[in-house]
Amino acid sequence: VQLVESGGGLVQPGGSLGLSCTASGFTFSAYIMSWFRQAPGKERELVASTSVGGSPYYVDSVKGRFTISRDNAKNTVFLLMNSLKPEDTAVYYCGARPTYYRGMDYWGKGTLVTVSS
């Protein structure tokens, strides 16, 4: 099983960045896919999730700025981040679980997003 994130980097405040997470080794279409982030000195937090059917969920801090989507044919989940703020700086991880009633079965290794001028 693998989850491989890509797309991180350095972006200026107000800019945009797109992340991808490609899965292998499990039935991607049957899993809820989520993006988490962990800033230096802070706990990992949920950013957004997409259900098996594609319904999105966002934490309040990213609503209206981030968009999560999935392509089951490509076993990939995306996170489009607009109007980025310095406080969005973190390592972003994708995770997979079969139900909302348990923790993640699988995690990626993360990709660093730095928002700075």
Q: Please give the number of β-strands.
A: 11
Look at the helices and sheets and give the structural class: mainly beta
Q: Give me the strand/helix succession.
A: EEEEEEEEEEE
The portion of residues assigned to helices is under 10%
Query: What form results from the Cα inertia axes?
Result: globular
Distance between the termini: 37 Å
Portion of residues in beta strands equals over 45%
Mean pLDDT: 97
The whole-angstrom Rg is 13 Å
What's the tally of helices?
Answer: 0
Report on the structure:
It is a single chain. This protein is an all-beta fold and 117 residues long. It has no helices and eleven strands. The model has no long low-confidence stretch (mean pLDDT 97).
Please sum up the structure shown:
This protein has 117 residues and is mainly β. Helices cover 0% and strands 50% of the residues. It is built from no helices and eleven strands.
Which tags fit this structure?
globular; single chain; 11 strands; seven-stranded mixed beta sheet; 50% strand
How do the helices and strands line up, and which of them pair or pack?
Blueprint (H helix, E strand, L loop, with lengths): L1 E5 L2 E3 L5 E8 L7 E7 L6 E6 L5 E3 L7 E6 L4 E6 L8 E8 L8 E2 L3 E5 L2
Parallel strand pairs: 2-11
Antiparallel strand pairs: 1-3, 3-8, 4-5, 4-9, 5-6, 7-8, 9-10, 9-11
